[in-house]
Amino acid sequence: MRPSRPARLPVRDRGQVAVEYLGFLPLLLLVGLVGVQFGIAAYAAQQAGTGARAAARAASVDDLDSVPGPAAAGKAAMSGWIAGHSTVTESGGVATVSVDVPSLIPFLDMPTITRTATMPLPDAPQEDRP
Description:
The protein has 130 residues and is an alpha+beta fold. It has one domain (18-120). Helix content is 43%, strand content 15%. A 3-stranded antiparallel beta sheet has the order 1-2-3. β1 (86-91) and β2 form a beta hairpin. α1 (16-59) packs antiparallel against α2. The mean pLDDT is 83. InterPro entries: TadE-like_dom (IPR012495). Residues 15-57 form the TadE-like domain. It holds the Pfam family TadE.
């Protein structure tokens, strides 16, 4: 005796998986964009910290003629596209870098990331002291 054949699926069920996949695809794309957005924000925060440390280090050097200014040193220490979206300020050995993070997800405003670094300023020369 021959084994019986399985019944064929009805014609109306064909393509069901493709339709389910098309419904799930926007959610997969959104999850992927959120992951990339968090990666960009983390990278921008790391680069802002690097720029703040470089700017504070440049401000603490005795001979300012041999190094660029704090703002230029901070921007030079960061990646090109991050430096283009950032502002560097320095006052009294405290350097602050603010980075505007670009948004990949429409209608999502990313906050500005700010990092601060402090370096001791050089002592005043002996003849300037009272």
